[in-house]
Design brief:
alpha+beta, transcription, 25% strand, globular, 12 helices, two-stranded antiparallel sheet, 11 strands
Length: 346
Amino acid sequence: MAVDVADPDTTALDLRDQRLVAALQCDGRLAAERAAEVLGLGVRTVQRRWRALTADGTVRVVVLPPRPAAVGATLLRIRVLRGKLDTITAALAAREDIPFVDLSASGDEISAISLTRPGARDSLLFRQLPLTQAVTSVTAATVLHVFSEAADWRLDVLSEAERMTLTPPAAEPPAAETLDATDTALIGCLDEDARLPAAAVAARTGLPESTVRRRLARLAASGGLRTHVVVDARRLGLEIDANVMMRVAPGRLDTVGRALAAHPAVHGALATTGEANLTVAVWFRDLAELYAFVTRDLGALGVDSAETVIVGEVVKRPGVNRLTARPAYSARSVARATSPTPSRGQ
């Protein structure tokens, strides 16, 4: 994935800005005073750099939706006739039940994740894609276990002590069904900007500011307010984006999956059905680092086989949809996408 280093949109951020991005990954609503104290920077410097990074769209902090209690996922690999790639890609990205869409660097394969109700005969997989003449093949694998996801990834520029200090105590996120109407309204207000001040949220919802502050603090403490930092990996000096599909012996699947989820390059790790039973998404500075990962790191873990697909274009991921003006994967869209209504998938 070649990048013009003179292009201001893809020039890597300096170390100070990368550390400020990493601080937001620890806590999307982190106060500038706290970040300044831990990182050894001036408060005004932190405020100024965060304003600059968010004002030009380099960094966005969004709220991830509450997890529905009964929703699964299917990993799709779709091969498409080259002349029809844009059409199929746009159709997939427009669907609310598809939060991830990547195009391979080879230009003939789409990788996507489809949200599905467990046991459902999804119309996309069983009817729509097979009937599309532009689609030459579809491989589907059910996600059995999520070892890590995009929001879990941390840019490796903070010390362990800094990261631990900036990260709030972990809590198991509540299911969407356990949140009341006020919680849902507050989370919905933060869909596009998770750093929206409490006063602004109060103005939008009509709730007292004291109530907003108390509710947001409770949601954050209970794991109900999950944030995600959206930033182009190339701005972090990570030029190579790839998906690696592996075959691991069943007795070692959990151990290998957990080990890879903790790897600094891995921003997603899934156990799946199918011939390849473990898939990881990785970011690296260059192909040499990717090669070392495949030969050294996977080799040391005893992976039986691995297939690597380099991502040529990110189309849709949490907080990003390059084909629409709307943020992808909002709380409201997931609620609609996973609703068991007759219109779903049509």
